[in-house]
């Protein structure tokens, strides 16, 4: 029987800290001893006592691999130096089955006798409460160790200066880095590790690539709740929406949805599936995870950021444009405000200029880009009638009319300086697709983290899906996309999810 390997984050966090020359030996031991028979029937595999779950350790030289197993699977919990496996309260099975901390201390047994000998004539002097000394780190944080743990260079100097846990808590670092450091600085607690999410390890080669920096992520093992949403409404008559907060696994479900779509489209010659996410880092990780899921079928999937696709559509000749910086946008707005000529007679022009006096230039730039441009409002009448969910300041007709004229002047300045904004690129792409000048539609489209997209971008991705039933969208349930009062159908007529919306309620982080 061959066992499937899965692992917890603590295992990979600790694996990174091990010197590279020892990693191969450890991984080979895992493959040899755990892949076919993880039961503790020989001297190098022992059961640990004192834990709620069944926890075992595998010896590999000076290192110990903690694991548990069940029907067809082995879960790797941690890997650490021999001295570290025995930290904490639990012992291996061949040792006395008594938690060390359960043995009473004898330090104070003589204290009552000493007090009696001293007599009770004078009460003891009141002592100020002792302030415990900060707990020192069990090891020095060195540049070599931190680099093995994939700590970015800009944090290394500050972390190397830490000598206590208080120092470590005081440094502002990403939470995943803090977890990685604490997994290597504190005693391994399998009871806590067992509650962490599980990831599909795949081959031992994948773990080796991870330690070498060639593999950036592993697939989350889906819970029963998550598995249900992979196939949800796969053959329905419209698009499917999956909402969930951070840590709910919605992005992983989106990857498994791609796998389901590839299988469903197997009868179509050369199917094309688009998977979009928000950042280049997520693109790299998503492509690696899809390669694990799809194997040779990965060629059917176009994995990219939405903006990279929209840039290609908006700029088919790949001309070189420069994107306006925030400073340049401020300069252009100042020029536009100083030189704009409003429509109407003198009184009407004065009213429009006064209508903008209470709006900050930063707010005006945001209104022009995130409302008018991002939502592809093509006429002043459309802007006058448009809802503005998420915008804090209500605007009357005079203000909107003035902003529309200011937007025209603002655009003239942008063009004069040969500058573009991402909002403009996205709306240009939407215009080309709407005119029939876009790429050939995809057979299926999966959009991850849709709440991070402009409406114009989401419109384009929807329009690029050949049939709406093969459109799958994830969004953050904790964010009302584009603000209160937003309706998906306001972006595209096809975005109607009645009966095809799922909500993930469990956070797995």
Polypeptide structure, described:
- The protein has 509 residues and is an alpha/beta fold.
- The protein is 41% helix and 13% strand.
- The protein contains 21 helices and 15 strands.
- The protein has helices at 9-17, 20-34, 82-85, 111-118, 143-148, 153-160, 165-170, 175-185, 190-193, 204-211, 224-230, 250-264, 280-294, 306-314, 326-339, 346-355, 361-373, 380-385, 397-416, 422-434, 455-463; strands at 4-7, 45-48, 55-60, 63-69, 73-81, 199-200, 219-220, 240-244, 273-277, 301-305, 322-323, 419-420, 444-447, 471-476, 501-504.
- Helix 11 crosses helix 12 (250-264), helix 15 (326-339) packs across helix 19 (397-416) and helix 16 packs across helix 19 (397-416).
- The chain is globular, with a radius of gyration of 30 Å.
Largest beta sheet, briefly?
A: 7 strands, mixed
Roughly how many Å apart are the termini? 32 Å
Give start-end ranges of low-pLDDT stretches: 85-89, 91-119
* Neighbour order of strands in the largest sheet: 2-3-4-5-1-6-7
Helix content: 40-55%
Structural class: alpha/beta
Given the structure, what is the number of helices? Answer: 21
Percent of sequence in beta strands: 5-15%
**Outline:** globular
Q: Average pLDDT, to the nearest integer? A: 86
Q: Over the alpha carbons, how many angstroms does the gyration radius reach?
A: 30 Å
Number of strands: 15
